[in-house]
Design a protein that fits this description.
By secondary structure, this protein is of the alpha/beta class. The chain folds into 2 domains: 5-16 and 279-390, Aspartate Aminotransferase, domain 1 (Alpha-Beta Complex), CATH 3.90.1150; 18-278, Type I PLP-dependent aspartate aminotransferase-like (Major domain) (Aspartate Aminotransferase, domain 2, 3-Layer(aba) Sandwich), CATH 3.40.640. It is 40% helix and 15% strand. The chain has 12 helices and 13 strands. The protein has a 7-stranded mixed beta sheet with strand order 2-8-7-6-5-3-4, with helices on both faces. Strands 9-10-13-12 form a 4-stranded antiparallel beta sheet, covered by helices on one side. Strand 3 (100-104), helix 5 (109-122) and strand 4 form a beta-alpha-beta unit. Helix 1 packs antiparallel against helix 8, helix 2 crosses helix 8 and helix 9 packs parallel to helix 12 (375-390). It is globular.
Length: 393
């Protein structure tokens, strides 16, 4: 197929807005130097762009603080390679030998694996709280899992498999009551849904740049609340106080080391500008309208099973399905080759939620919608599944 219908936006949004392409190309072409390492104009201007982006993202996650005139410290917003790298900073910087972490069966491997390494290799322990049949967590189950040695609760905000969105305000209230730091994996929700650290009692928000924020791949980071404690676990160059033989304790250096991704951060800045100019609510409404159309169309096809909630509330525009007598990977291949529809098949790096929904080990066919999708795209996807169902082995 010459025409590509891209329905894998939960993996990365594609295409990116032109403003992102232009920013990466033009800023890097004119300012592709090492920020903070010299006093030349280009380095100073590159550093100013990074600090401006830092402030912009700090405000994104702390809007109520800024609105009340109590702006959070933007230096506690650090950039990282992606959400996975930032999650490792949070988990390894809070969970030590003898500590306990509470997480969930909804998590991506970027949480599951570092937590399990802290258990196997670091002498910690972990509890994985399961959701209900539709994929939603009961905040009281989080409370029941907390113990005297619990040092972190970490929760997936929006599932990359079924799109369910957790009630982080209610979970945050539980963590406040119990005096436990609360970390949020917002890989599927940053730039899609409002996230306010004070409202949800969040100690840490981890984000990736290349999904709902429309930045380049290889961008992301974390925001640390003003009252949160995080031990540094990454060390190296900072361009500041080079005679010091140990890594600096102050933020952002506690969570950053080495040369920054100037091109990526310039694109990350432009991506957020595009989201805010177009309107987060407007983008979300468009995507959810198309999700409703897709879900209704798939539900009408015999031998199609949808996995997880079919509720369009507390949801992002992601849906998982299976087709009787087909391996999900074969459905994905046929949709791609015959209809030009690109999806994601398999376990989507989230094996525990597939076990919960009974779709392990083969997984599902995942459709995830973005702002550049249209009703025509959705209708072609539905027609493709319908015709495959009619021709099933």
């Amino acid at each position: 197929m010459d025409t590509i219908i891209y329905l894998d936006n939960a993996a990365t949004t594609f295409p990116k807005p032109d403003i992102v392409h232009d920013s990466v190309r033009e800023f890097y072409a004119s300012h592709g130097v090492n920020p903070g390492r010299t006093g030349c104009d280009l380095a100073v201007e590159a550093g100013a762009m990074i600090e401006g982006t830092r402030k912009k993202y700090s405000r994104l996650f702390n809007e109520s603080a800024y609105a009340s005139g109590k702006a959070s410290d933007p230096n506690r917003l650090g950039f990282a390679l992606n959400a996975t790298a930032a999650l490792n900073l949070v988990i390894n910087g809070t969970v030590k030998a003898g500590d306990h972490v509470v997480t969930t069966s909804l998590e991506h491997n970027s949480v599951i694996r570092p937590v399990n390494h802290r258990v196997r290799d670091g002498g910690a322990e972990a509890t994985y709280v399961p959701p209900d049949a539709e994929g939603y967590l009961d905040p009281e189950d989080i409370r029941k899992a907390i113990k005297s040695n619990t040092k972190l609760v970490i929760v997936n905000h929006g599932s990359n498999v079924t799109g369910v969105v957790q009630d982080i305000v209610a979970i945050g209230a539980v963590c406040r009551d119990e005096g436990v730091p609360f970390a949020l994996d917002s890989a599927q929700t940053a730039g899609v849904l409002p996230i306010d650290m004070a409202e949800a009692n969040l100690s840490f928000v981890v984000f990736t740049g290349h999904k709902g924020l429309f930045g380049p791949t290889g961008t992301g980071g974390l925001c640390v609340a003003d009252d949160a404690e995080l031990e540094g676990t990454i060390f190296g160059g900072t361009g500041v106080r080079s005679a010091t033989l140990y890594h600096l304790e102050e933020y952002p250096y506690r969570i950053e080391a080495g040369t920054q991704n100037v091109a990526g951060i310039s694109g990350l800045s432009a991506g957020l500008d595009w989201v805010l100019e177009r309107g987060m609510d407007s983008i979300y409404a468009h995507e959810m309208e198309l999700l409703g159309r897709l879900q209704e169309g798939l539900q009408a096809i015999d031998n199609v099973t949808l996995h997880g909630t079919t509720n369009l509330e507390r949801r992002v525009a992601t849906l998982s399905m299976t087709l009787e007598n087909y391996d999900p990977s074969d459905v994905g291949t046929l949709l791609d080759v015959e209809y030009g529809v690109q999806t994601r098949t398999g376990l989507q790096c989230a094996p525990l939620i597939h076990e919960h929904h009974g779709t392990a080990p083969r997984g599902t066919v995942r459709f995830s919608i973005g702002p550049f999708n249209t009703e025509e795209h959705i209708d072609i996807a539905i027609r493709g599944v319908e015709e495959l169902a009619a021709d099933r082995p």
